[in-house]
Design goal:
The chain has 123 residues and is mainly β. It contains no helices and 11 strands. The chain has strands at residues 2-7, 10-13, 18-26, 33-39, 46-52, 58-60, 68-73, 78-83, 92-99, 112-113, 117-122.
Length: 123
């Protein structure tokens, strides 16, 4: 079993920055992707960014491309999301997720989830 634990959420003004962290523990054998999703009130959960378990390839949603950076430290299986130039529309609960699947774009592709951390961006 794999456990994921996020940290680093908070409140910031538009244009500011935050960094989210997610530590993976347990048996990570066979994992293919580790990523960040977000869910705003009344909206469906959406992929923000994901990275291969080896950390050598990644994918970003168009809405965050150029502002967010995903990275992974393989030595301790910790995932990061550096969020710059934050906008009010980035306000959401952010979830760390991992999957053994070869598919990575949909929430149902991921079998392991963290508890979420809240990000609030004020204008």
């Amino acid at each position: 079993q794999v456990q994921l634990g996020e940290s680093g959420g908070g409140s910031v003004q538009a244009g500011g920055s935050l960094r989210l962290s997610c530590a993976a523990s347990g048996d990570t054998t066979g994992m293919n992707f580790m990523g960040w999703f977000r869910q705003a009130p009344g909206k469906t959960r959406e992929l923000v960014a994901t990275i291969t378990w080896s950390g050598d390839n990644w994918y970003y949603a168009d809405s965050v491309q150029g502002r967010f950076t995903i990275s992974k430290v393989n030595a301790n299986n910790t995932l990061y999301l550096q969020m710059n130039s934050l906008k009010p529309e980035d306000t959401a609960d952010y979830y760390c997720a991992a999957t053994k699947s070869e598919y990575y774009r949909r929430s149902y592709d991921y079998g392991y989830w963290g508890q979420g951390t809240q990000v609030t961006v004020s204008s």
